Amino acid sequence: MRTAIFASVMMMAAATAPQLQAKEAAADLNAYVGKYPFDAVNGHRFLDHPVVKAAIAAAVPDAKTRASVVFPDDGLGLPIVKVAGGRILIWGGDRRAEDRYNWSVVIAPDGSKPEVCIYDGVGYGEDFQSAQWFEPGKPGIMKQGTCPSAAEDYPAADIAAG
């Protein structure tokens, strides 16, 4: 009898383990705040974290566009920060071209509410800079400026017509 009960308990624990692991994985994004994008936390760089990868894929379904949000070994990054609403902001850019090509991801600590910004600048005049923003289930929209790299730069301003 004890063996049957023990086996039943072990099967229930095995069935709930992935759910617990998923919750733990989703809940640990706050651990990245203050770290650089290339720093590993619990074995994952921020962009390699399964919850973050899934959130970015949901926001940017086109694989070719999504490929812009990478952190190559020679890329530039700033420490990950908290922004409005307790969300997390990560920024990256191409080395020696960060003012021309950069991106950012804003996400809730549990992996929800992702926003992805991709800036592929054509010119350097601030008045003409705009970046494309993506959210799950919505078409990409253009907002003013480059992708935010600091808490005070988020949220991005809408483009003012005039």
Contiguous runs where pLDDT drops below 50 for at least 5 residues: 1-26
Label the overall shape. globular
Number of strands: 9
- Count up the helices: 3
What does the radius of gyration come to? Answer: 19 Å
Beta-strand content: 15-25%
Mean pLDDT figure: 81
Order of helices and strands: HEEHHEEEEEEE
Distance between the termini: 79 Å
Structural class computed from helices and strand pairing? alpha+beta
| Total discrete domains | 1
Fraction in helix: 10-25%
Sheet with the most strands, sense and barrel status: 7 strands, antiparallel
Summarize the helices and strands and which ones pair or pack.
Elements: H1 2-27, E1 40-41, E2 44-45, H2 50-59, H3 63-66, E3 76-77, E4 81-82, E5 88-93, E6 101-107, E7 115-120, E8 130-134, E9 141-144
Antiparallel strand pairs: 1-2, 3-5, 4-5, 5-6, 6-7, 7-8, 8-9
Can you give keywords for this protein?
single chain, disordered N terminus, two-stranded antiparallel sheet, alpha+beta, seven-stranded antiparallel beta sheet
How is this structure best described in words?
- The protein has 162 residues and is α+β, with helices and mostly antiparallel strands.
- Helix content is 25%, strand content 22%.
- The protein has helices spanning 2-27, 50-59, 63-66, and strands at 40-41, 44-45, 76-77, 81-82, 88-93, 101-107, 115-120, 130-134, 141-144.
- The longest helix has 26 residues, at 2-27.
- The protein is globular.
- The N and C termini lie far apart (79 Å).
- The model is unreliable at 1-26 (pLDDT under 50).
